[in-house]
Amino acid sequence: MGKKKLTKYQWLVTLFLMLVYSLTVQIVARPLLTKQVLHNGSAIPTSSTTLLFWLNLIVIFVSLLMLLFQAIIYRIIATVLGTNREYSIGYSIFLLTIAVLPLSIVEAVATLIFHQDNLFSSKIVTNSISSVLSVLIYSLGLKYMNIITKKQLIVLSSILIILNIIMSLIGGFSNPSFQ
Fold first, then answer.
1. Where are the transmembrane segments (predicted)?
2. Span 13-34, mean pLDDT?
3. What pLDDT does 176 receive?
4. Is there a domain that residue 3 lies in?
5. Is 26 exposed, middle or buried (0-12, 13-18, 19+ CB in 10 A)?
6. In a domain, 157, yes or no
7. 80-89 pLDDT, tens per residue?
């Protein structure tokens, strides 16, 4: 079997999903950025609207870069553990975007409804649950496409879940609003 690559349609779907992901990141980050700009913005000689615009662009760019980086790491770990079939980094991005988007949408909707900044992001339990669910969706996507076996699914999911929980703990303890 050849390497699993994205079709043109899947590339379009991936781009659309990344656009939706960018929108959810912007919705979740906006209250926190607005509060920071209003609190610390007087020291910067530019309008708060301009500053907020550029900060939003930076946050979206960094979040997409982190998504790409995470997809590459997931693919490397899966390849090291062994797969039935090779798959491209684009395919890994496609699966990871599908995996993180549902929970990102939930967080964006909750932020819009409750009008609070950092509603879920600072909560270590929420980060851990989100990580576990996204890893499971990603791993099940690999299994569904016959890239990994059931045994490989269990091993890969376990390793990625442990890695994500460790990263959540590290991020949670370094966060001043850790609860």
1. 12-33, 53-77, 89-114, 120-141, 153-173
2. 88
3. 43
4. no
5. middle
6. yes
7. 988 888 888 9
Answer whether residue 28 is part of any domain: yes
Domain that residue 37 falls in: 8-174
Q: Which residue has the tokens 């988007």?
A: 101
Q: What pLDDT is stored for residue 4 in this prediction?
A: 80
Q: Report the pLDDT value the prediction gives residue 67, as an integer from 0 to 100.
A: 92
Query: Residue 121 phi/psi, 5° resolution?
Result: -60, -30
Asked which of 106-115, 134-143, 155-164 is least confident by mean pLDDT, the reply is: 106-115
pLDDT at 20: 94
Please give the single-letter amino acid code of residue 72. Answer: I
Residue 82 placed within a domain: yes
Q: Is the dihedral of CA 56, 132, 122, 101 positive or negative?
A: positive
Domain count, the chain: 1
Alpha-carbon gap, residue 119 to 110, rounded angstroms: 8
